[in-house]
Amino acid sequence: MISVRNKEFLFTPIADYIISAEKVVHVQIGNNAEHALLVLTKTGYSSIPVLDANDRLKGLLSIRTVTDSILGLAHIEYERLPDLKVDEIMKTNIPTIRTTDRFQRGLDLVIDNPFVCVVEEDGTFAGILTRRVILKQFKKYIYSVD
């Protein structure tokens, strides 16, 4: 059974658990798919945020979205990469969380996502909340039950 103290933990703001935007690899709207694929490949991440010139979150880009965009009927059309723009192929219907949201909301969202993008009220990208961080915090509180 979860103690009252741990239930309160579920309602704490997520601000302390965020990996800040300065530490998160991302691409810009105007970048081409070739650049994005290089970033994804070099970093080893499966997906990364896409930001506009004002650091507002616009979507997510994954290796899968890039490769899906260049799959032809007979072969992979690598020659299309320089001409495809990130904003043409990114996923825009993504879950987000605000810096003021509670831990429980983050927990709910990372069940189906390895990370969730965190935004300020104006849509500015603040960072990410990862499944790893959520699980580590949850484990810490589970083991600290009196």
Please name the defining characteristics of this protein.
7 strands; 3-stranded mixed beta sheet; 6 helices; 4-stranded mixed beta sheet; 146 residues; alpha/beta; single chain
Assign the structural class, choosing from mainly alpha, mainly beta, alpha/beta, alpha+beta, or little secondary structure.
Answer: alpha/beta
Mean pLDDT value: 90
Low-confidence stretches: none
What percentage of residues falls in helices of 4 or more residues?
25-40%
Largest sheet: 4 strands, mixed
Span between termini = 11 Å
Order of H and E elements: HEEHEEHHEHEEH
Strand content: 15-25%
Instruction: Based on Cα principal axes, name the global outline.
Output: elongated
Rg computed from alpha carbons, rounded to a whole number of angstroms: 18 Å
Number of helices: 6
Order of strands in the sheet with most strands: 1-7-6-5
Number of separate strands: 7
